[in-house]
Structures are given as C-alpha cells and as structure tokens.
Specification:
The protein is an alpha+beta fold. The chain is built from 23 helices and 33 strands. It starts with a helix and ends with a strand.
C-alpha cells in the first residue's frame, strides 16, 4: 500500500494551523478578560458567595495545677446601631433598586418615633449595663445619631462590651427584635482571651493578638497547636432563593492545658516580691518556685516598674533575661572543684585583708575595708561569700586548664541548655577558651588572665534565673537534674487525655561525696551564725541556699556608668527532705546591696507561707475543753453568717428577715443588729469582708477598688451619701 505524502503533509499543516488559531483565540480572550473586562469580573467576584468556609473551633483553656481557670476564650463586642436599617428593609421588601431609593419623610418619622418612645428605657438600661456614662449622656448621644440618620453609630462610645453585657443589651427594647435588619443592631464580635486572676502569671500564660486571633507569647504560643483545635468546614447551598449553611465537617475544639502553676503559691510569691520592690524602689524582680522531685514550676513572677511607680508583668525575665548571677554562681564553682577532687571541705585558703591582686586587677571581698577574713576553710568561703577565696581556689587548680573548669560547669548543670518550649527562652552563656598554635589561649575568644578568676565569682557569664534555680534544684534532688515543667498534661471535657512525663536532663550532676559536701555547706550558709544567708532561714524548718550580689553596669561600663545591683537568694527547703527550690532576684539602685539582707527575707516569707499552707494539724488538739469558743464574725451578709454558725453548732440571734447586719459576740452567742440600706444610699461596709463589701456596693452601681487584705477598715465615700452610678469607691482592707 502506497502513502500519498503530499496528502499527509497537507493534513498535518491544517491541524497545526487550526491548533495555532485556537491558541491565539484563548490568549486573546485571556487578554480581553484581564484588561477590557477586568472591572466586570471583579464586580462578579465581589458579590459571589464563597462555596466553602471554615468554622472556627473554640480555643482550649489554660488551667492551674488544681483545675482553676487561668485563661479562657470569651467573645467581646463592639456594638453599633444603623438608624436607617428598618427603612432599608422596607425598601428591600418592595424590591426597590438601590439607585431608586429616596427616603420617605413619613418612613423616617415612623423610625424616629419608634426610637423616641423607647429612648428613656434604652438609656436607663445602658446605664445599668455600662455605667461609664450617665443617663443624660447616653440620651444625647443616641438622639444625635438618630437625628443625623447615622449608619454605624456606637451604642456605647469607645467601649467594648463583654459577653454578659452584650446579652443584657440585646434584651433592651428595639435591640430585642428578632429581625436584626429591623432593630439596626450591628455587633462586631472579637475573640477575647479572659484571665480570671488578672495579671497573675501573665507573662508565663502568654498573650494573644486579639484581632488576628493568634498566639503571641508564653504558653499560648508554646502550645498553640494543641490549644487552637481543628477548624470545621461549611458550604452554602441555594434552596428556594435562600442560602442554607450546610456543615460538612464539625470543628474540633482545642485541648485544655493543665499547667503546673498553683494559684495560691503564685499569689504568695507575687505579694512578697511586690512588697520588697516597693520598699527598695527597685527596677525589677523575679521569683521562680519549683517542686524538687518533678521540676514543676509552681509559681513564676516577673515584675517591672512602670512610669506610674507600680509593678507589672512586662517581660519574662525568669526565662529570657541573661544576667550576671553574682555569688549564687560560686556554688557551681566550688562544686566543680569538689567533684574534680581538687579541694575538700577541710582545706583552707588565705584571703588576707580582703584584697588580692589577680594578674593586675584587684579582687575585693565585701568586708575588705574591715580587714577581710584572713585564713578560712572551704565551707566558710561560701558562708561569707568570699570573692578572694573562691577566685584563689579556682585559679590555683584551673588557671592552666580553664577549658576543664568550663566543661565542669556544663557537667554540673549550671551551663546546660534546658530546651524550654518558650519563644525567646535563653540558654546560659558561658565562654569557652581555645588554645592557639603556641599553646596559649586565643584573645579572639575575649579570654584573658583575669577571665577565670572573675568567671568563678559569677561575672563574665550570663545565666537566666531559670537555669540557676534548676541547678540548685538538682542539688536538692540528690543530684538528679530534671527539666523545668510548666504543663502537666492536656485534658478534654474535664478528663486528662495525656500526661507529660518528668524529663531527666542529667541522672547525676556530680559524685555523691561532692554532692553531700556542697549540701552541707549550703545548710551552713543559712543556719550557721557566720553565714550571710541567715535572713532567708526560718524558725520552723531548715533552709539551705546561697546569697548573691552582683554589680550591673547600666551604661559607660562599671566605672563610668550608673551602676545598679542584682541581689538574689537561691535555695531549697526543708533541708533534710527538700520539697521546693526557689530563687528571688531583685535589681535596684538602692545605696545598700545585700543578697542575704534584701532577697533573703523575701525567700523566707515565701517559704514560711507555703510551708504553713501544707501543714495539717488536728485542730481539736489546740482546743481548751473548758472554754466556749465564739469566732469573730465580720459584718456583712446575715444569712451566710448564720448558716456557718449553725453548722458549727453555735447560737445566733437577731437579723431575721434582713440581708445585712452588724455582728457582736457574747459569751456563747453571736448577735446581729439588722441594717436597712437604701439602694440610693452608700452603705456602711466597715468591718465587712471583701466579697460582702463588693457585693453591697456593686449592686448599687458603684465601682470598687481595694487596697490590702482582710476586712474593710476604711471607705473613701462616706456611708449615708447619695449613690452616684458609676462612681468609684476605694476600700482599705486590713
């Protein structure tokens, strides 16, 4: 069979020509669509309804160790009203084109009359919901928006309503209309991360970018993938000219985080630190409280002074701040030498008059002007925190092998990276010397003859407080170093889904003999009459630890600049069977600097309050069987007080039918004098507890601020005065 080549070539040419024409047509149409028809298709895209949308899941909560809510997602609302919405709805129902709409004065009058009839009721309701403005101010504001036919007019100017306030608002006249097109209510919902305990552990819990609904810092960011959940999917389907939302995939809510934070311990630590910061007018302060066996961080406080003189959580100094630790670092230096076998507790070192020339630089003890300590043994070197003693011992054995000393610091754990999940968490910064070709040490490493001596006493190194407390915790935990744990596990619907295990970083940081020696020395720092840590001690249990005082250059170097001090105390208790390890660090410019005298008392106060919190004793052992015990009853809610007294088997008289009363105790009975309080009169809350006082005042529309703890001993607005809605009253408690 013969093929006609001419015929075949003609067909191929035809196919190629047709294909080329099709391609030219496609390209041409694409050009027309992208240029000439650009506006047309943009308009189509703007009004088109997305077929598939995401359903947001509920973000998980962050709970305390005992299950209390520390962070949860609750929406808040920016609320507007459209004063033309009802008229728009009426025109739409008639099918009138937007361009043909001309607002009829009759319709506007009807709209206005609907508002004016209900205006007083609405304004009264707004005052109750949000007492930021008076009745007259709300009325003037709404009338202004109504007369000018505003489209998006704030109901409560410059105010964001919480979930409860919003639900109260939608019950008011007009706003309660089921058809929101008729009511004109426009609510802009925003996801708000609510913290019931306010600023408590704020930096550790973390923050959210509210508008973006994304995690910003802390636990919120570290465990965002667990908290966020999985979005669902929904698509719109048109049925009988209406769009119905059909759920294709339900959203999966995020897990709840069960943190290691104990709310009461956090409050104890924060209160004790804040009190000392005010006393010293300090720049900032840090407290970290850790459970010895598990490494659970029970409390973490980061306070910084603001321009108003108050202290707030601004930055997570405990995890992110690289600080020269000062004398708390001396424990690590001595432990390295003990573990390497170079020194023993029975060894002595000559500190002379408290001044020593270390390769051209003068090393001084804090008491050099009083003649120094002379010849002292190794325990006393730490007990009196002798700079000369520590630097002489370390320089004697490691001057020609400084890399071995630095290696030892990492071995005992003070220089070990902790691998924490927090964004911005810092690792210890300890320089390592390297030898050059001639056997000396490279100056490019910023190493010098004096580097080792100053490093041994806590300078020329940078350690975040969390690393220091982890090192001391390893000493307390019989040499086992565990990773600090901030989250115990995740839960769902109140049931634990997964528990995070205790992670061991180092099974043993040193030899047992060296560990026993350093623990005995740390005990003497606090409990021996010569120890500088006495003020961190406690009469009810033994404390072990080490003081620290470091000079911090704030500009121009140590000599030329303005200097501050970082005072600290790090230790554990009870010494015989440690339960908690704690570090207190304070930076201040006070003229006197003392780790034992300034940070030590804070440690002692925290330790005693937490220890007493866990002490359980049979109260019957303290009773006098021949006496009748009548408790001191605070003024306040009579019904609640009488219920408690009844449960205790005690008699009470008076106050029947009254909510509030003044209590007085007789020999075996509590009597109540009823108090009748008008809703328009400021009540007398003296002698009441905080809860009763706040309840009595808040019910009358007043804002309450409190100072101190205990029962009310003073109120800024006198009782009997006329109540002004939204007025602030300050209560002094003691």
């Amino acid at each position: 069979m013969k093929f006609d080549k001419k015929y075949i070539n003609t067909r191929i040419t035809g196919i190629v020509v047709i294909a080329a024409l099709v391609m030219i047509a496609i390209i041409g149409q694409a050009v027309v669509t992208a240029t000439l028809e650009n506006r047309k298709w943009k308009k189509v895209g703007a009004v088109s309804v997305s077929d598939t949308m995401l359903l947001k899941p509920n973000r998980g909560n962050i709970l305390s160790a005992d299950g209390q809510l520390m962070a949860s997602s609750l929406p808040d609302y920016k609320v507007y009203v459209d004063f033309l919405s009802g008229i728009e709805w009426w025109y739409d129902s008639l099918g009138v084109n937007k361009k043909q709409k001309v607002y009829d004065p009759v319709q506007l009058a009807e709209k206005d009359s609907m508002w004016r009839v209900n205006l007083d009721t609405i304004c009264s309701g707004l005052v109750e919901i949000c007492p930021k403005y008076t009745f007259e101010e709300y009325k003037s504001h709404i009338v202004k928006g109504l007369e000018n036919h505003k489209r998006y007019w704030e109901v409560c100017p410059h105010t964001v309503l919480n979930f409860i306030q919003y639900n109260q608002l939608v019950k008011l006249p007009i706003f309660n209309l089921k058809n929101r097109n008729r009511s004109g209510l426009v609510a802009e919902e925003r996801n708000n991360r609510n913290k019931p305990f306010g600023s408590l552990a704020r930096r550790t819990l973390g923050e959210m970018f509210g508008a973006k609904d994304s995690a910003r810092s802390g636990l919120e960011l570290a465990y965002d993938s667990l908290l966020r959940g999985v979005p669902g999917k929904v698509h719109n389907k048109k049925v009988l000219s209406k769009y119905l939302s059909i759920v294709d995939q339900e959203p999966v809510d995020g897990y709840d985080l069960v943190s290691t934070i104990d709310v009461s311990m956090q409050d104890i630590c924060e209160s004790a630190l804040r009190e000392k910061l005010h006393e010293l007018n300090a720049e900032m302060g840090v407290v970290v409280l850790m459970e010895v066996k598990t490494g659970d961080v029970k409390a973490i406080v980061n306070l910084m002074r603001y321009d108003d003189g108050e202290y707030y959580e601004a930055r997570n100094y405990a995890l992110a701040a690289l600080m020269e630790p000062g004398s708390t670092f001396k424990t690590a230096s001595i432990l390295v030498a003990l573990d390497d076998g170079y020194i023993k507790p029975t060894d002595y070192v000559e500190t002379g008059s408290g001044i020593c020339n270390m390769y051209g630089a003068m090393m001084k003890d804090h008491n050099w002007h009083r003649g120094g300590y002379g010849t002292i043994d190794v325990p006393h070197v730490l007990m009196v925190s002798s700079n000369v003693g520590v630097s002489k011992l370390i320089d004697k054995y490691y001057h020609n092998q400084p890399e071995k000393f630095v290696e030892g610091l990492r071995r005992v754990g003070i220089g070990t990276p902790l691998g924490l999940p927090f964004d911005g968490a810092a690792n210890p910064n300890i320089r390592t010397p390297h030898k050059d070709s001639k056997g000396g040490y490279k100056m490019s490493d910023n190493w010098s003859a004096t580097a080792l001596a100053w490093m041994s006493i806590g300078y020329e190194t940078q350690i975040p407080p969390i690393s220091t407390v982890s090192f001391y915790n390893a000493i307390a935990n019989n040499g086992k170093m565990v990773r600090p744990r901030f989250v115990k596990g995740i839960s769902k619907n109140g049931e634990m889904v997964e528990e995070f295990p205790v992670e061991v970083i180092k099974p043993r940081i040193c030899r047992q003999e060296a560990l026993d020696d350093i623990r005995a020395i740390l005990y003497r720092v606090v409990n021996d009459k010569d120890g500088l840590g006495k003020r961190a001690g406690n009469p009810y249990f033994h404390v072990s630890g080490k003081t620290g005082t470091a000079q911090v250059a704030m500009g121009g170097g140590y000599k030329a600049g303005h200097n501050e001090h970082l005072v600290s105390f790090c230790g554990f208790y009870p010494s015989e069977d440690p339960k908690y390890t704690c570090i207190v660090a304070i930076r201040h410019a006070y003229y006197v600097a003392s780790g034992g005298g300034q940070a030590g008392p804070v440690f002692s106060k925290i330790a005693q309050r937490i220890y007493s919190k866990n002490v359980t004793t049979d109260i019957n052992l303290a009773k006098d069987s021949t006496a009748v015990h009548v408790p001191d009853v605070k003024n306040g809610n009579v019904v609640s007080a009488q219920y408690v007294l009844h449960e205790l088997g005690l008699k009470s008289e008076g106050g029947k039918g009254y909510e509030w009363g003044l209590a007085s105790a007789g020999s075996s009975c509590v009597e109540f004098q009823p108090v009748k309080v008008s809703d328009n009169i400021v009540p007398n809350v003296l002698g009441m507890g905080a809860r009763d006082a706040v309840c009595a005042l808040s019910n009358r529309g007043m804002k309450v601020r409190m100072k101190g703890r205990g029962k009310v001993v003073g109120q800024s607005v006198s009782s009997g005065s006329k109540v002004t809605k939204g007025q602030t009253i300050t209560l002094e408690l003691n």
